[in-house]
Specification:
Elements (H helix, E strand, L loop, with lengths): L9 H14 L3 H17 L3 H11 L1
Helix pairs in contact: 1-2, 2-3
């Protein structure tokens, strides 16, 4: 079985995150997503580390 990998543009990713946070009622994650993403990129956080930071903020 193969899985298709669809790369989203940065704009599409931002929109998807915003929509998901609204639907899931995660206002803090929505508000802090962009800053947390930027910090994760600067500090080289792993995906798990990034996710942990964002979940802990909520």
């Amino acid at each position: 079985m193969t899985t298709a990998h669809h790369a989203l543009t940065a704009q599409a990713s931002d929109a998807a995150i915003d929509t998901a946070c609204r639907m899931l009622r995660l206002p803090t994650m929505r508000a802090q997503a962009a800053d947390t993403i930027a910090r994760a990129e600067r500090e080289g956080l792993s995906y798990a580390g990034f996710l942990a930071e964002l979940l802990l903020a909520e």
